[in-house]
Amino acid sequence: MTLELRGITKRFGTLVANDRISLTVEPGEIHALLGENGAGKSTLMNVLYGLYHADEGEIFLDGVPQRFAGPGDAIAAGIGMVHQHFMLVPVFTVAENVMLGNESTGIAGTLDVDAARRRVREISDRFGFHVNPDALVENLPVGVQQRVEIIKALSRDAKVLVFDEPTAVLTPQETDELMEIMRQLKESGAAIVFISHKLREVRAIADRITVIRRGAVVGEASPTASNAELAALMVGRPVELTVHKEPAKPGAEALVVEDLRVVDDSGHVHLDSISFSIAAGEVLGVAGVQGNGQTELTEAILGLQHHVEGSIRLEGRELVGRSVRRVLDAGVGLIPEDRQVDGLITGFTIAENLMLNRSRSKPFNRMGTIQRKVLEQFANEKLVEYDVRAPGIAATAGQLSGGNQQKVVVARELSRDLRLLVAAQPTRGVDVGSIEFIHKQVVATRDKGVPVLLVSTELDEIAALSDRIMVLYRGRVVGIVPADTPRETLGLMMAGERPEGSAA
Amino acid sequence: MSTTTEIPVPANAEGIGTATSTRGLLKTPILFAVVTLLVLLLVALKSRRGETTFRLAVDTDLFELPEVAVSSTAGTTTMVVLLAVCTAVSAVLVSRGRRTPLWLIAVFSVFAMTGFLCWAAAGEAVPVIGLLGGSIALAVPLVFGALGGVLGERAGVVNIAIDGQLLFGAFAAALIGSMAGSSWGGLVAAMLAGAMVALALGFFTITYFVDQVIVGVVLNVLVIGLTSFLFSQVMAENPQGLNNPPHFSRIPIPLLGEIPVVGPVLFRQTILVYLMYAAVAVVAWALYRTKWGLRVRAVGEHPKAADTVGIKVNRTRYTTLLIGGLIAGAGGATYTLVAVPQFGREMTDGAGYIALAAVIFGRWDPIRATLAALLFGFATNLSGVLSVLGSPVPSQFMLMLPYIVTIVAVAGLVGHSRAPAADGIPYRKD
To answer: What is the pTM of this model?
Structure first.
C-alpha cells in the first residue's frame, strides 16, 4: 500500500508543529524521517495515526483520500505504529495486549484468548521472535516488549508500519536485530516509515531520507550522504559532530567507590559489588542499556538512596551516610537524567532555578533574605555565558525548550566550585546545537581538573567524551575499558558479555 | 567477536530483581499473635462461667441439627490453642519467605470469632443462623456498593460517591416505590438514581478533569442535603403516600433452602439478595472473560495504550461508571424496600465508605471485594446480636466493631496491593 501525505499542517496555538509537509512511502520501501527532537516528526505521525487532526492537508492510501477520526480508523485502514513509549498494558499478557481493541469473541462477548495465542505464535514464528503469548508484558525485557508492539501492528494486517524512535531503548545488538526485522518486513511488502534522529541508523537502513526542521521539510537525502551533510541539513548549519579535546591529564585519584551495593525498599538489589575510581581531570563514562543501575549509581552518590553499603570517597572523605545537603557541600554537582523532574522547578523563574542549591548561603542569602539584586546580576551573567535562549531571567523554566532548560541546569551546576561532576544523560532530548555546547562544557570542566562521571545510554556520547568507559549490566560492572574500545565490543558488554583479558 | 566470553553469572545475579524483604509479609503473623493474645486475655482476666449454646437450626427447618453446647472457658481456651497454632504456621511460612494463604486467614478468623462468642455469650444461646443470615442481609448494600466501586476504579475513576449513590438510591426507591405502589418500580428508580450520581461524577471528572476525590465527596454532601431537604419538605407532608413503599418479602428457594445451615443462611432471603449473587457473578465474569471487561481494564491501566488501538477511553469510562452507578443504586434500595420500608435522613450511615474500603481490601477484584463486604456485614450484625444477648462489652464498643474491622483489615491484611495504574487520573489527549 502506498502512503502519501500531502501538505499536512498542524498548529498548536501559534506554534506551527507541521508546516505543509508532503511525503510518499511506497510498498517495500523504508523511508526515514530524520529530524531533531521537537522538529515535528512525532506530531506528523500522530496526525497520520488519527491521534491529532490536521488543520490542513490530506492523507492518501493507494491514492484514496482518508479521514481518520481516531486511531481506530487508521488501524482499520492498514496503518500500524510501533510507539516510542510502548503502548502496552504492563499487567496484561502478550496475548491480551495483542488482542486488545481487535478481540475475537465467542458467545455473549466472551474473549477467545486461544485465538489470540494462536495469532501471536503464528506471527512470532514467521519472524523468529520467540515471544510467549502467556507472558506478562511487565516481566519482559524491553527488546521483547518492542516485538510485542510489532506483533500487535501485524496482527491487525498493517500494510504501512511506522517506527517512532524505536532504537532509543535498545542495545546496539538489539538495534541490529530490529534492523533485520525491518528489512524482513520491507521484503514482505510493507511500507515502512522510520523516525529517528540517529544519523548512523538512518543511513544504515533507509531507502530514502526526508529531513524535517522546525516543522517543515527541508530536503531529501540519499542514504549515501555523509553524516556531516545530514547533520547540517537537520540543524540548518554546519555542525561539529566530533568533540575536540586534548588527551586527559589525569591527576590523583579523586573519587573512589568500593564494593557499592544498593538495595531498594522492597529488597531488590540494583547495584552490587561496584568498584571504580576516577582521577582528577578524567571523564569516566558509564555505558549500559537504560535500567541497569545507572540511576541508582548517581542517586547513591548524591545520598538519595536509602540502603547503601560500601564506600564512596571523594578526596578521602566518605560520602555514604551523608545527607544530600552535605554531599552538595562537599562539592558534588549533578546534572540529573530527567531535568523536568529532578533538575528544575518548571514553575519557578530561570533566576530562581539558577540558585536552587545555593539559596541558603551568601551571596544569595543574607540573614534569611534572598538578595534579589545579586541574583539578578548572577542570572543575567549566566544567561549570556551559557547561551540560554530565553525571553529573560524572569521567564519560567517551563517556557524554555528542552535544550535551553538543560543549559540552565548545566549553568547552575557548573557555576559552583566543583570537586566532582555527575552528568546523567546530559543531552537527552536536547537539540544538536545545544549538545555541542554541553559537550564542550563537560570537557572544559574536566580540563579544570574536576573528575567527571558521565552516564549516558547513547554510545556515541560515551565514546566522544570519555577517557575510560565502565559498562554496567544488571547492576554489576562488566568491565572498565579504554575509550577507544570498538563499538561492537562495547555493545556485547552492554549485553553482559565480558571481553577476554579485562578485569571487572 | 571471537575475543569475548560469556560473563560468568555470579551466584546471586539472580538476586537482582528477585530478592524480596519479609517486612511486608510479617504483618499477618503479628496481627494473628495480637488477636490470639487478646482472646487469651479475655479468658485469663475475666473468665466466665456457664455454657455457651450454638443453635444451628431454625424452627422451620426440615432437618433440624442439634444444638451444640460447650463450657465457656473450655471453648475459649481450645480456640486460643488453635489460634496459637495458626499463628505459628503463619510465622513459619513467612520465615520461609511465603505469604500467609487466604484460607489460613479465613480459618483463623472463624476460630477467633468462635472463641470470642464462647466467652461473650456464656450462659446464652447464640443463634448462628440468624447471625450469619443477618450478616448477608446487612452486607447487601455494601456488596452492591463495592461492585459499583470496583467497576468505576477498574476503568480509572475513583468513586468516593458510593455513599451518595446508596443514599440517593434509598430515597428514590422509597419515593417512587410508594408512588407507583410497586417495589420493583422502587428498585428501578433506585438504580436510575445511582446512575444519576454516577453521571454527575463522570461529567465533572471525565469531561472536565475535576479531581475525582473532591467531586465524590461533594456529591455525597450534595445528596445528603438534597434527600434531607426533600424528606422534610415533601415526604413529611404525606408519609403515607410518599414514604411507604411496598417491600420485598423473603422468598425461600425450594430444596436449596432446606440444606442445613447453608439453606436458611443463603437461600431464604429476599429477591435483592438473589440479585446480589447474580450481580457478583456477572460482574466477575464480564470483567475477566469478556471483550468489554478487557477494554475496561485496559482503560484503567493504560488509557493511552487503549486509545492507540482505537478504544474510546472516555466513553468506556462513562459507560462503566454508569453501570457501576446502576448497581450501587440497587444497593440503596435495600434500605427502603426490605426490612423497614421507609426512608430516613442519612440512613446509610456512611455505608458507602465501608463499601469503598471493601473495594480496596478486595484489591479491586469483584469476588474479593464481595467477601470483604460480607466480613463487614458480619461485624455489624455481630454487634447487634451481642448487644441483644447482653454481652459484657459496652454496646458503644460493639458499635465500633465494623469500623475497627475495616481499619484492621485494610491496614493489616491487605498487604501489597496494586490499584489500577490509571486509577484517579483523568485522560486527556495532550
So the answer is: 0.81
